[in-house]
């Protein structure tokens, strides 16, 4: 279980998150939705140790890890997939996996990457930068699942991709969720996120304005809330 408790955080320019609490149970996919500028990316940065909160706690399986550096949190299985694609475009798919796999675990890394996203197996020898945007996103995502993560923090993985490929990527992520990977998903595609999530939080101007199951709120209500507040 991954938990944020009463997090208040921000930048020199001002406070962004105010008393935010959120739980990602084991084996659950949790969607974090909200209008532009609400603080979703900031919350993921706090969750992965990139930004120290002013107050509040981060807990992994009940252990307080507040203040831990990103690499320490990564070692505890808190894996952040930031916006944009962190791949080496001039290297092959296989070499990208090699560089991202834990030392001595390349074969295992490749096996996990290609079983997670079978298309990568077909393209192992292709130069990563020549793949489609969707395939590059799959390669970037595959790194997150190689080290047997505790929770994967996904920031707008659909960004800049065609709806059809987004659907495909979401099917993979849903499948990973069912196989027991806890996921915290920040997403603009509200409908898709509601379909795959077990639990939904809406962040509005730095505060949680809704927490519940997807069946308790409609896409329309959420979209309307983006224009005003809930
Ligand atoms: P979007 O959906 O547009 O990506 P978001 O919900 O992810 O938005 P954040 O990116 O967390 O929102 O931004 C929340 C607020 O914090 C915004 O007002 C933004 O301008 C501000 N902010 C983000 N990063 C920084 C930074 N490095 N320094 C100062 N202010 C920042």
Automatic annotation (TrEMBL):
The keyword Transport applies. Residues 2-230 form the ABC transporter domain. It comes from the Bacteria. The keyword Magnesium does not apply. One of its GO terms (molecular function) is ATP binding. Keywords: Amino-acid transport, ATP-binding, Nucleotide-binding, Transport. InterPro entries: AAA+_ATPase, ABC_transporter-like_ATP-bd, BCAA_Transport_ATP-bd_LivF, P-loop_NTPase. Belongs to the ABC transporter superfamily. This is ABC transporter ATP-binding protein. It comes from Sporichthya brevicatena. The lineage of its organism: Bacteria, Bacillati, Actinomycetota, Actinomycetes, Sporichthyales.
